[in-house]
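Question (not urgent): is this output format expected?
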Amino acid sequence: MDIAVLLLSMCLFFAIGMPIAYALALSALVGALWIDLPVGAVMQQFASGVGKVSMLTIPFFVLAGAIMAEGGMAKRLVDFAAVVVGFTRIRGGLSQVNILATTIMSGISGSSVADTSAIGSVMIPQMAEKGYPRVFATNVTISASLQAIIVPPSHNSVIYSLATGGVVSITSLFLAGVLPGLLLGFSLMVLCLFYAYRDKHPKGEPVPIRQAVRMLGDAVWGIVTLVIVLGGILTGVFTPIEAGAVACVWAFFVTMFIYRDYKWSELPLLVYKTLQTVAMVLTLVATASCFGYVAALMQMPAKMTEFFVAISSNKYVLLMWLNIMLLILGTALDLAPLLLICTPILLPVVKSFGIDPVHFGIVMLLNLGIGLLTPPVGTTLFVGCAIGKVSVDEVMRGIWPFYYVMFTVLMIVTYVPWLSLALPRMFGF
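Got this back:
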């Protein structure tokens, strides 16, 4: 009965249109009052939820990604990808350029929405001009941006790490997301290659040597950000927090003094938008911490474990049910709130079945990331439609082959744990 009161109150607040953070906080208060828990205890959890030093990782990476996404990096990455793909002269070259540029951008921005906005604003008009259907170009862009959910420096990996209470390190999650992210990008490239030869898309055009050298030189400055983040963390030079801070400084230096595409007068607005994003995330973390605290006192994780054990004691069956549940939930709620709500509840369940928390984190991120491409709460989907100047209905009618590819990759990542765990184990995490 306790758990029912907690969940029903949360669903009621969602149903009346209350913001997610407020809904979580109020449902936590309702649950606390129901079990005679002092309200002060819930308020203490609200403060302690955002009192961890590791929380600093979020604003640093958000700011670094925003600077690089809006400061001319996207166009230079597209040029870099065009040089690489152009020499192959394969059919459908621009779709391959789109995916490759998004792959690199994902390793800089850490946000699927930022990737879609930055790469889409450059690539979708180009693809439309060369004869590609706008719907197809939009679907390529939003599907490829899913990589940003799992590859470093993913903001959502940091949120998952925080939601586990520090059980899973940020570094291990960063490493775990590399191979699944690359697999997703490669799979989308194969799909686009199929469409290119079926629909006779134009071939890629080689770039003159002198122009190619200049393009590569421009792009290197941005790609160094990847080296700073991963190289610094793996070599022990930086902690994830320090890597985020250094990435901010480097992104600012490259954008304002090397590229010089961004105006100094626009910088305060960018910082303001970043603060809005960070404030939203931290508020969600704080309220979700309260909700998770009350849920733990109601023994929700233990009862969830009993429920799934009653269904089956096989971990592969459990993973199948969790995939179905997360895919459904991902269509109704945004990624970050679901991570914060579900992780404290489901983590004890998967650990009791012998599933590695790092592996489950990547599975969870990929599941919920697909939800960003599905209505009614598909943030990345809506941004892509706005940039591509196409309707949601048009995109949904053409996105199913991309869904099939993403679902196939999800199944491979789910049932082949090696993909997620190989790199963390190689580096001793």
